[in-house]
Every structure is written in C-alpha cells, then in structure tokens.
Amino acid sequence: MMGTMILLILLTLAAGIVGWLFFLWAVKSGQYDDIEGPKYRMLDDDEEEVGKKTGREDRRPVDKR
Length: 65
Fold this sequence. Notes:
- This protein is mostly helical.
- It has one domain.
- The protein has three helices and no strands.
C-alpha cells in the first residue's frame, strides 16, 4: 500500500515537471507572444498586397476554386 502511494506521488511529480518544462519551451519559442492579433488579422483587407504583387492597384483577387 505504501509503495503504491510513493509510486503515484513520484509519477505525479514527474508529470508536473514535464508539463512545466513544456510550458517553458512554449514561452521561449514565442507561442504566447501575440494572442490578440490573429482574431483581428482575419478582418484586414488583402487588396494592397495583391496590387503590389501584380503591379495593378485596381485588380481584385481571383477566387481559384
């Protein structure tokens, strides 16, 4: 009974340490840099970028389905 409790405590501590290390890796790799940007970025118009690529400002993007 006591051996099982010690094993469970050690496994829980190991899982916690692995989770903490994964969190530190995510923070250092920039996963949490900009959490608000993507939801507003989808609302931006891409017409300026299309005009720069094609050289024509009045050209609209073509739907390639």
